[in-house]
Amino acid sequence: EPEVTQTPSHQVTQMGQEVILRCVPISNHLYFYWYRQILGQKVEFLVSFYNNEISEKSEIFDDQFSVERPDGSNFTLKIRSTKLEDSAMYFCASRRDRSTGELFFGEGSRLTVL
Amino acid sequence: GNSVTQMEGPVTLSEEAFLTINCTYTATGYPSLFWYVQYPGEGLQLLLKATKADDKGSNKGFEATYRKETTSFHLEKGSVQVSDSAVYFCALTDTGTASKLTFGTGTRLQVTL
User: Fold this and answer.
1) Within 10 A of B110 (CB to CB), how many other CB atoms are there?
2) What is the pLDDT of residues B34-65, one digit of tens each?
3) A91 contact residues in B (CB cutoff 8 A)
4) Which residues of chain B make contact with A33, given a CB cutoff of 8 A?
5) How many CB pairs under 8 A join A and B?
6) Which residues pair with B54 in a beta bridge?
7) How many Cβ atoms sit within 10 Å of the Cβ of residue A107?
8) Which of A10, A6, A22, A2 has the alpha carbon at shortest distance from A79?
9) How many CB atoms within 10 Å of residue B92?
């Protein structure tokens, strides 16, 4: 069964460092998303991406964040200068099209900022 | 804006007990409603969904009915198992371009023998 894959599963970084989280969505999907979940809190929407551009972003997704689909298969989330409060589980998700409601999620990348 | 409110956890039940996890929502338009489950150490998996009023989603013995009049989508299971221990998230999609999911805070279920 096709699945969304994410790497790394866990990354530890120092405050101020750049981090790139990688995702490979399901191959025939067109809509891509990043969510995050701070430990013990709700899953929060960060950004959606369609047709090689951002469709929507939340207030959390400030200038420190960027997304890219560099090669038609990977979908990356970059945090330019990490802060302690960026420590969270980051989930990538994809959807085939707008008519199907289901988002398929990856297993997440845990980011720990020290 | 859209929001989802779930009952606080954790919920602790004995095996074979009846489960209800309450979920209510606020949304404009006609959202689709979902329950996602997160097993320990894993990502989010779709458990069930309903796309219009009075629809009932069901999967693995879990059910939820889309109630527009009470803006609710309560999750139920008649007889829980230890393997159902997980965090359950109620969610909705709006009718925006990318139809992002808005999640509730999640409810942790612990089932004991």
Assistant:
1) 14
2) 999 999 878 889 999 998 899 999 999 999 99
3) 43-44
4) 98, 100-101
5) 61
6) none
7) 19
8) A22
9) 24
